Amino acid sequence: MGIACTHKCHLLCSGRFLFLTEAPVEIPRERVLWLRGRRPSKSRPKAFKNGASMGISKATVSYLMAEGKERPFSGSVLTLGVQNIFMTEPQIERLAEKMGFALAPGPSDPVQRPNLEGYATSEYLFRRLGFDRIVTTDVSDFEDADLIFDMNAPAIPDEHRNAYDLVADCGTIEHVFHVPNALKNMIDFAKVGGRIVHMSPSSNHIDHGFYMFSPTLFWDFYSANDLEITACDLVRYMMPGHDRDDWLFGKYRPGSLIRQSFGGLSSGCYAVAAIAKKTRDLDEIVIPQQGMYSQAWAAAAKPRKVKSQAPLRVFGRKFAKTWKRGLTRTYLLIPVFARLKWEALTARFPLKVDRRY
């Protein structure tokens, strides 16, 4: 499959050079990837070529290792869905060495999944992270999940309540229609002191699932229900290559994305990475109000200072307003190319890049 050029002036790609031709040419997709600075991999499994490329990427493995290095993993883990791991076993070992993460012994006889032959299994990954019991759950048995359960359900089986040290959502709850039930079920699955981890899609994942999430959802929900939020990041990655290339992580705090809330994100795919620690049992979940509005309501409830009407004070306020308006008009006189350059610079990743995996 190539990309046809039909414009009057045609571009022909040869290696990393471009030539103009007078006739339409067919540019192979591999050449197009080279133009974008990406050399296509010749060793990717069939699952990628068929489009089934969702699962745990190198960046997600790095994120888990960083968490495990700071707060070591142990005990049992429940993964939502039977996850693909887009790394081989030697790649996981090299990544752990790079990050200074001490791997635990792996399974003696890991079972290979037929569509990702040669790649590590989720059992291998989580055992190397430190867990001795790995349980998978799904609504269907087509991938041989250990627990057949619908996350839309209002309650989980009693034998699985408070049973897991980690509940891992590496791209599942966007496919669950009843998100409040799904979040409540994840809390109920976790032990007191256990952790919940999300790697969930945000902007530019149109029709991937039912939803694309904002960081404020996880921050406000877990805060309202007394979970300790140990990490919350906005993540950006590019396609193709999301399974193996670096992702950008920026720390999220309430209010840090207000300026980007309407069309302020640049190109690329965005996700939310969050980790929350369960501090107590919950009989019922608290439905949160969005934090931005809660803060505004609290501010409005405080008594306001009455502005002084003294002549000098009134003059000062009018002078400041006029000065601000003058600066705005001066900004409009800046050459267009300089403004475009500034907008291109500020349209990049909206938060300070804290980590890159």
Structural write-up:
By secondary structure, the protein is of the alpha/beta class. The chain contains ten helices and 13 strands. Strand 8 (164-169), helix 6 (179-189) and strand 9 (190-201) form a beta-alpha-beta unit. Helix 3 crosses helix 4 (89-99). It starts with a strand and ends with a strand. The model is unreliable at 1-53 and 341-347 (pLDDT under 50).
Would you spell out the secondary-structure blueprint of this structure?
Elements: E1 2-5, E2 10-14, E3 17-21, E4 25-28, H1 29-35, H2 46-49, H3 58-70, E5 76-80, H4 89-99, H5 122-129, E6 133-138, E7 147-148, E8 164-169, H6 179-189, E9 190-201, H7 215-224, E10 228-237, E11 248-251, E12 269-277, H8 291-301, H9 311-332, H10 336-346, E13 353-356
Parallel strand pairs: 5-6, 5-8, 6-7, 8-9
Antiparallel strand pairs: 1-4, 2-3, 9-12, 10-11, 10-12, 11-13
